[in-house]
Design goal:
Distance between the termini: 68 Å
Largest sheet: 3 strands, mixed
Radius of gyration: 19 Å
CATH class: Mainly Alpha
Bound molecules: adenine, zinc ion
Helix content: 55-70%
Low-confidence stretches: none
Shape: globular
Strand order of the largest sheet: 4-3-5
CATH topology: P1 Nuclease
Length: 260
């Protein structure tokens, strides 16, 4: 082996181990949620949303919240993607992030969309952001512990590659399954009308506590330096799929309440 080949191999191995810290459901997760929500929109809501988004679907705009992270103009929205408060405290009594959190972010978007004085341009912004945030709220580790940034600091191996617990739930399990967002959105569980109604019930805060309860379990599912692979997906991918489905149904509920 010559020197150049050796260096190339070393470079490739290092490249593989670099983990980008992108703290969100990946694109596939967000798009699946948007696509599922489309099925539950009322005609009236669908029409108004289509007009606002100029034909772009909810799956297409669902990743907007992440795309704007590349523009410093939007830095002030960074903390809107999650909320961390102690597991033994109520959100209402917890110390709030002055920059805002996902609960405040969703409330802000909903209020702006309901306000007739909001400009068309701002409505488009808040609608796209709302689609994204209802998705993030259902990634349980977005309602996590502050100490480890919702599991971002819990480094683990995913199929021998460096990752972290947060990322496993945002992206790794979904990408490893290797289905497109359209396939994932078509292959959801058949739910009765009563089940759909029951999922749609509750407030943003109720859904926040539900995610927090799941996060508690997820924290017990793995520890620092664990090697996660097939067995982890076998145990938890069902929960990922059910969260995507719930999130889609609830996104439609929130949008139907605004536009219905
Ligand atoms: N950064 C800090 N806490 C986070 C969380 N819970 N989810 C995503 N990103 C975070
Ligand atoms: Zn996000
Ligand atoms: Zn995330």
């Amino acid at each position: 082996m010559n020197k150049l080949t050796f260096l190339l191999i070393v470079f490739c191995v290092f490249q593989q181990n670099i983990v980008a810290n992108n703290p969100n459901w990946g694109a596939t997760g967000h798009r699946t949620i948007g696509e599922i929500a489309e099925k539950y929109l009322t005609k009236k809501a669908k029409k108004q949303i289509e007009d606002l988004l100029n034909g772009q679907g909810l799956a297409f705009v669902s990743t907007f919240g992440d795309e704007i992270k590349s523009d410093h103009k939007y830095d002030k929205y960074y903390t809107w993607h999650y909320v961390n408060f102690p597991f033994d405290t109520k959100y209402e009594n917890s110390q709030k992030d002055k920059k805002g959190d996902i609960v405040m972010g969703i409330e802000h978007c909903v209020n702006a969309l309901k306000d007739p004085s909001t400009t068309q341009k701002d409505k488009v912004f808040y609608l796209k952001f709302l689609v994204h945030l209802i998705g993030d709220l259902h990634q349980p580790l977005h309602v996590g512990r502050k100490e480890d940034k919702g599991g971002n600091d819990i480094k683990v191996l995913w199929h021998r590659k460096k990752s972290n617990l947060h990322r496993v739930w945002d992206t790794d399990m979904i990408e490893f399954y290797n289905m497109s967002y359209t396939e994932l959105s078509k292959n959801t569980k058949n739910l009765s009308r009563a089940q759909i109604e029951s999922i749609s019930e509750g407030s943003i805060l109720d859904w926040t506590y539900e995610s927090q309860a799941l996060a508690k379990k997820i924290y017990k599912s793995a520890k620092m330096d664990d090697k996660l692979s097939y067995r982890y997906s076998y145990k938890y991918f069902g929960l990922v799929r059910s969260q995507l489905q719930k999130s889609g149904i609830r996104l439609a509920k929130v949008l139907n309440d605004i536009y219905g």
